[in-house]
Amino acid sequence: MGALVAAPAPKAWALIPDEEDEELLERAKANRKQRLAAQKETTRNFLKEEGVKDKQLDAELLPVQKAVFQLAKSGSQLEAGDLKGVSANLGSGWVGEFQRATSVLDASDAEKAKAAAVFDGISSLRDVANKGDLRGSKQQYVALVAALNDWASSTGLAADLKGL
Fold first, then answer.
1. CB count in 10 Å sphere of residue 148
2. Do residues 145 and 163 make contact, with C-beta atoms less than 8 angstroms apart?
3. CA 60, 149, 108, 100: dihedral to nearest 10 degrees?
4. Is the pLDDT of residue 50 over 80?
């Protein structure tokens, strides 16, 4: 019987993009994020057109819908002049749930920036309400609602939210 001799395997050379080119890597990452965002939007639109319920999206939308209702409640409290109620409402747990939901729903950096503007608006409204400035609170509320509408439109969720 002959002995089997194992020859060393030849070295494999792979073509790997230049990992040290930071600009190229950042562009590649940005392009990948854009493709994923577009794919996610296409899937949402398809499911909506076909009348298919997306249980995951519905679960992700629940905290956003709660946030819309809570902000409407804050608007009613502002109309009644109840700044303490506004401050208490904006300091409750729904804000954290809303923030977690937006982090899942935001697909692009632009959407993340718009979501950050919404949370800045919530924080600013709470601060102004704590100071007892009714007029400033109303102005901040209008800006907050505009930021929320902008975010919801950019994510394609505006039509799915009641009361927006």
1. 24
2. no
3. -40
4. no
pLDDT tens figures, 86-113: 999 998 889 999 999 888 887 788 888 9
pLDDT, residue 57, reads: 61
To the nearest 10°, the Cα dihedral for 96, 35, 58, 64?
30
Locate tokens 């401050």: which residue? 87
- 3-class SS at 88? helix
Cβ neighbours of residue 152 under 8 Å, at least 6 residues apart? 64, 158, 161, 164
Exposed e or buried b per residue across 30-51, where buried means at least 16 C-beta atoms within 10 angstroms of its C-beta: eeeeeeebeebeeebeeeeeee
Token readout for 33 is: 């994020």
3-state helix, strand and coil shares in percent for the chain, rounded to the nearest 5: 75, 0, 25
Q: Is-contact 67 94, C-beta < 8 A?
A: yes
Asked if residue 149 lies in contact with residue 71, where contact means CB atoms within 8 angstroms, the answer is no
CA gap 42, 33 in Å, rounded:
14
pTM: 0.66
Structural contact between residues 61 and 30, judged by C-beta atoms closer than 8 angstroms: no
DSSP state of 160: G
